[in-house]
Amino acid sequence: MPDTLLGGLRILVTQADDFMGPTLCEVLAEHGADVIASRESLIDPTAPAAVVTAAGRVDVLIANLAVPSPSTEVVSISDDEWRATFAALVDPLPRLVRAVLPSMIERRRDAFSSWAARRLCAECAARRRTARPARPRSGTS
């Protein structure tokens, strides 16, 4: 018998082919959700609203925002690379929220999840654990 924990909920997963998207869609569907798997790029400022409109009723938004793991050393990252990363991971989130929130408020149903933020926090924590210890400041022991 299928799990119906999320039965009846329409869950929009953005960038459904990237990062955690495929697994999220599979697990959500196994728990009974009606998964709306969006594969559209969200770089264009009008794209998030178009994705939400095309999805119809959305009960839960999972903002799965991803880019390929960067390989540029931090000291060598260009402004263009920073801008492209923010355009993919940061800029779409408020646009998605602005697009989906009015109908959620009207129906008194809202739920959001930002995998980009969780991923960033996890990567930062992992890097902190593997970073070399800081050198003592001059004049301290």
Structural class: alpha/beta
Please state the overall shape, judged from the principal axes of the Cα atoms.
globular
What average pLDDT do the residues reach? 82
CATH first level: which class?
A: Alpha Beta
Order of helices and strands: EHEHEHHEH
- What fold name stands as the CATH topology? Rossmann fold
Low-confidence segments, given as residue ranges, are: none
What is the strand content? Answer: 5-15%
Strand order, largest beta sheet: 2-1-3-4
In CATH terms, what is the architecture? 3-Layer(aba) Sandwich
- What is the percent of helical residues? 40-55%
The total strand number stands at 4
Please characterize this protein's 3D structure:
There is one protein chain. With 141 residues, the chain is of the alpha/beta class. Helix content is 44%, strand content 11%. The protein is globular.
Summarize the structure.
With 141 residues, this protein is of the alpha/beta class. The chain is 44% helix and 11% strand. It contains 5 helices and 4 strands, in the order βαβαβααβα.
